[in-house]
Specification:
It is a single chain. With 635 residues, the protein is an alpha/beta fold. It folds into 5 domains: 3-92, Beta-grasp domain (Ubiquitin-like (UB roll)), CATH 3.10.20; 124-195, Ubiquitin-like (UB roll), CATH 3.10.20; 202-350, 2-Layer Sandwich (Nucleotidyltransferase, domain 5), CATH 3.30.420; 360-394 and 508-620, 2-Layer Sandwich (Nucleotidyltransferase, domain 5), CATH 3.30.420; 397-504, no CATH class. The longest helix has 24 residues, at 255-278. Bound molecules: FE2/S2 (inorganic) cluster.
């Protein structure tokens, strides 16, 4: 088949691809992955590119007329038919290196101390042994000699694997029978044998998110965190939510393996980067923990995810045995034990269990609501006596997805919006302080609250007739201009459309309806909640009074709110360092009740009531009020 050269600008990277390959696929091969919500179906409009020159075939897809007129087409619907030069606008790129790794410093002390009251008792340990040398008369095998010494000196029954045995004879003799053996906790499987006194032991905690993946390297002997690195999950080219990934995995031949390899490549590249900069040999990494949602875990392990999205939504496995790194495909010591966080249900996964572990919900007497406002909007309510969880399908709007100018919280994102009530002029806060290129979740929340407060939208989210050039009507309907093209880094107006507002109201409505459904199931009112923990990078930028004002979060005093950062990663770090914490994780997942919101009418009734700003029942939001700005909590 004919091969053609496709050059991507502004990076000036060229790849050769077969005729008929989509620009989306070519960009992926060039290491320049593009955004996608629909997995390449041509419906999300996220992958817009400009063909500068060359021969392509554009098959169509849904792209706003305005962008088509400006010469854009959809990468997933544009096929290479000859050499071509393609420009990728910044807003279509899936940035690689802007994953938020650090919290913004608003964390409580209790949430920065990793181990807290848990002992340092990591997923593997090192035992130093001096073996009696064999003689002509004392001639038991190397393996029996090692196991007998381990039993005698440490009281442990070691377990041997073939890979270990293959190395054993030389290792023992080269070390002059004085060795360190690294053993997996619990199973006492022997992972590594090294000369006495020279042994380092590292572990990896991995947060396998739908959008981002973060790897944290820890020194298992000291309990110190060495470094963290993160990047975008390479599965994103197959769609940016779990449903589109499941569809890709189950409706394309080889789709599941493609997704498995994409996740593994993301993780293994991060592992290589971390180990190279730390000067660490992969063999020295002798344990790992992985926390991810149920779909991510299925895909990573190559387990058929089909039934996760079909009623009654049953995962293949909620709890998994401790696996070996080689089975999973991690590029570390092949015998390293890999602890994978258990799920509660198809849509409350190991990442939430990990967060619940880290935030100690299950050991606190305080009634706590834990929320991760991501695409699935998972939440847990409870205390040391009981725990109940649900997932409310909030959609990716607060992650900036499915919103015309939406983006994730990274440099260039509008994170705060002020609107002068008299002039209706707009002031923006932009992450990094430069020109804006889009708007992220916290900016969207601010924007909704301020548009309502300035009377530009009503309680249903509809635009009102107000005199400002910022409010205009296009072919796609009315929209409000937040930043003019001359002020933005994309040279295009940054807008919030009527459809975006409806989308956001649906998302916030789903989150609040999820909270109400949990409370009603256990016959409690909002006031009973003693603390609310917000997990995920989103919380770093969230302005609580505005989130309350739009009815996303309960109307409780700001001091009851706690940001906890990436709790999935921190829980994985904790379980790596402390076996009692890992055992507690398994218990926690088993005793967490799951409320399936699609069963019964409760959620739907709550959802419909929540499709107003802030809510149809204003008594649920006493500090927000109905009319003048005086009644509202200042924001
Ligand atoms: S429109 Fe191209 S990926 Fe969705």
């Amino acid at each position: 088949m004919d091969q053609f050269a496709v050059t991507f600008l502004p990076d000036n990277i060229t790849v050769r691809v077969a005729a008929g390959t989509s620009i989306m696929e070519a960009a992926n091969q060039a290491g320049l992955p593009l955004k996608s919500t629909c997995g390449g179906a041509g419906t999300c409009g996220r992958c817009a590119i400009k063909v500068q020159e060359g021969k392509v075939e554009v098959r169509g897809g849904h792209l706003p007329a305005r962008l088509r007129e400006e010469g854009y087409s959809l990468a997933c619907q544009t096929m290479v038919m000859g050499d071509a030069i393609i420009a990728i606008p910044p807003e279509s790129r899936l940035g690689r290196h802007q994953v938020l790794l650090q919290d913004k410093g608003r964390l409580q002390d209790s949430l920065t101390d990793l181990l807290g009251s848990y002992p340092l008792d990591p997923a593997c340990s090192v035992a130093s042994l001096v073996l009696p040398e064999p003689t002509l008369t004392e001639n038991t095998s190397d393996a029996s000699r090692l196991l007998a010494t381990l039993r005698k000196e440490k009281g442990l029954e070691g377990q041997l694997d073939l890979v270990f045995l293959q190395e054993l004879p030389d290792s023992l003799r080269q070390a002059n029978w004085q060795v360190d053996v690294t053993l997996a906790a619990g199973s006492n499987r022997l992972i590594r044998i090294t000369p006495l006194g020279e042994t380092r032991a590292f572990g990896l905690a991995i947060d396998l998110g739908t959008t981002t993946v973060v790897v944290s390297l820890l020194d298992l002997r000291s309990g110190e965190r060495v470094m963290r690195k993160g990047s975008y999950n390479r599965q994103a080219v197959y769609g940016d939510d779990v449903i589109s990934r499941i569809i890709h995995a189950t409706s394309n031949e080889g789709g599941l393996e493609e997704l498995r390899q994409a996740a593994l490549a993301t993780i293994n590249d991060l592992i290589t980067a971390v180990l190279t900069s730390g000067g660490i040999d992969p063999a020295e990494v002798t344990a790992a923990t992985i926390a991810g949602n149920t779909t991510m875990t299925h895909l990573l392990l190559g387990i058929n995810p089909r039934y996760l999205r079909l009623q009654p939504y049953i995962p293949a496995a909620a709890e998994l045995p401790v696996l070996k790194a080689a089975e999973v495909g991690l590029k570390i010591n092949p015998l390293a034990p890999v602890q994978i966080f258990p799920a509660v249900a198809s849509y409350v996964g190991g990442d939430i269990v990990s967060g619940a572990l880290f935030t100690r919900i299950a050991s606190s007497e305080e009634l706590t609501l834990f929320i991760d406002i991501g695409t699935n909007g998972e939440m847990v309510l409870g205390n040391s006596d009981w725990l109940i969880s649900c997932a409310c399908s909030a959609g990716p709007a607060f992650e900036g997805s499915g919103i015309t100018c939406g983006m994730r919280a990274m440099e260039g994102a509008i994170e705060g919006v002020s609107i002068d009530p008299d002039t209706l002029e707009v002031e923006l806060e932009v992450i990094g302080g430069g020109r804006p290129s889009g708007i992220c979740g916290s900016g969207l929340i601010d924007c909704l609250a301020k548009l309502r407060r300035a009377g530009i939208i009503d309680r249903t989210g509809n635009f009102q007739e107000v005199a400002t050039p910022r409010l205009r009507t296009t072919d796609e309907g009315p929209e409000f201009v937040l930043a003019w093209a001359t002020q933005s880094s994309t040279q295009r107006d940054i807008v919030l459309t009527a459809a975006d507002i409806k989308n956001l109201i649906r998302s916030k409505g789903a989150v609040f309806a999820g909270i109400q459904s949990l409370l009603k199931t256990v016959s409690l009112e909002i006031d009973a909640i003693e603390r609310i923990i917000i997990a995920g990078g989103f919380g770093n930028y969230l302005h609580i009074p505005n989130a309350v004002e739009i009815g996303l979060l309960p109307d409780l005093p700001p001091e009851k709110y706690i940001f906890a950062g990436n709790t999935s990663l921190k829980g994985a770090e904790l379980a790596l360092l402390s076996q009692p914490a890992w055992q507690e994780t398994l218990e926690l997942a088993r005793r967490m009740t799951y409320l399936e919101l699609s069963a019964g009418n409760l959620f739907m009734e709550e959802f419909v009531s929540a499709l107003f700003l802030p809510h149809t029942r204003l008594e649920l939001f006493p500090s927000v009020g109905n009319g003048s700005g005086d009644e509202r909590r200042s924001g």
